[in-house]
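Recall the central idea of this unit: under ordinary conditions, the amino acid sequence of a chain determines the structure it adopts. In this exercise we apply that idea directly, starting from the sequence alone.
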Amino acid sequence: MILGLKARWDSLVSDDISKLSDVVELHLELSDINELFDKQVNALSSLNKVFHLHAPFKNAKGAYVDFLNDFDVFSKCVKLGDTLNKGAYHLVTHCSCGSEADFSVILANLKKLLKKSGKVIFCFENLTSEGSNWFKRVSDFSRLFNSVDNKRVGMCLDVCHAFYESKRVFGDFIKSIGDKIFHVHLADLGLNHEHGVMIGDGVIDFNSVFSKLSKLNGVTLIPEVANSHLNKSAGLVTAFNRLSDYL
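Accordingly, the structure predicted from this sequence is:
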């Protein structure tokens, strides 16, 4: 297992947190793949790191970026990832789907994007019933992987999202499709089901979580605690250090 960190590219430079790990998940905004593309590349080019990417959350219309409707956004993410990395990298995405027709479009877009780059590894993140009817169960991901039999299509297991559904859901993902889990987001779940709570301050038993995660090969672990970028990324440093104790 490899413990990385998640940050905005400008915070990575200004907050002096890059020394924590050689693996980074860049939290992207739409401007980062458009007008700030060159500035970002120039700022990060001197850092010898693996830069995984998380697709922007909102598109130009203010709607959530989705694999279904935002092909151009993902094309630009792939261009950025290919520019920053000499080798393979993960592109993490949320993906809602409301019908069989939607699923067909998602598959078509995915196949097109795979042809654009030999480096990118798409990691679809598990969502919750709070926001999606798809991509929250093992069966949803199994169907995706059976439809696109490609080593560069896998899963980002969001531990907090899984436990929001139930402890059993987390275990089912590990047991059933563990070989397709390449990337893991780690945050605690609050007593009232709040997302993104600091590691160790919620209800998740991380000793048990890491016992199960240890069965996965070469997985990248990323702390994803809410507001961890504030106060010069103090929350990120705390989360990183707490997770280090489990390794």
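The chain has a mean pLDDT of 92.
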